[in-house]
């Protein structure tokens, strides 16, 4: 594994741990004002928009929800994850994220999930 891949994996693991803990302060450390999150509802740019996105997502997948990482692939400064989750609010039989880093920050993040309300 290259130094770039090691750093990418560390940042993604930090992101996943913060997400699992619904720790908005910690998750936002992975982004900058120039970061963009692409979602099925559109592009979100900047810390305020990204913060709101995660705050809303934490309602669907609160701390303690079932979460299974199906796949984690890292290539250079890019990572891809495939996952499933279930909470009292929703069942997500398929979720996927891609992360593209600049240095130790997520510059571009794509998110897609098939969400079924419980």
From TrEMBL:
Residues 12-92 form the SnoaL-like domain. InterPro entries: NTF2-like_dom_sf, SnoaL-like. It holds the Pfam family SnoaL_2. This is Nuclear transport factor 2 family protein. It comes from Rhodocytophaga aerolata. The lineage of its organism: Bacteria, Pseudomonadati, Bacteroidota, Cytophagia, Cytophagales.
């Amino acid at each position: 594994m290259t130094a770039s891949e090691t750093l990418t994996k560390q940042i993604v693991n930090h992101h996943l741990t913060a997400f699992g803990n619904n720790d908005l302060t910690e998750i936002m450390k992975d982004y900058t004002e120039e970061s963009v999150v692409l979602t099925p509802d559109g592009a979100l740019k900047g810390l305020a928009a990204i913060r709101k996105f995660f705050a809303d997502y934490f309602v669907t997948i609160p701390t303690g929800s079932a979460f299974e990482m199906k796949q984690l692939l890292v290539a250079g400064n890019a990572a891809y994850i495939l996952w499933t989750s279930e909470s009292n609010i929703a069942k997500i039989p398929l979720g996927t994220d891609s992360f593209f880093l600049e240095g130790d920050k997520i510059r571009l993040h794509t998110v897609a999930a098939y969400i079924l309300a419980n």
